[in-house]
Amino acid sequence: MTEHTAAEHTTAGAAPAGRADYCVIACADAWRGDGEVLASPMGVIPSIGARLARLTFSPDLLLTDGEALIVGPDGAAEGWLPYRQHLALVTGGRRHVMMGASQLDRFGNQNISCIGDWHRPGRQLLGVRGAPVNTLNNPVSYWVPKHSPRVFVERVDMICGVGYDSAAAAGPSATRHHRIPRVVTDLGVLDFATPDHSMRLASLHPGVTVEQVREATGFALAVADDVPFTREPTAAELALIREVIDPDGARNREVRG
Question: pLDDT by residue (tens digit) across 172-187?
Answer without folding.
Answer: 989 988 999 999 999 9
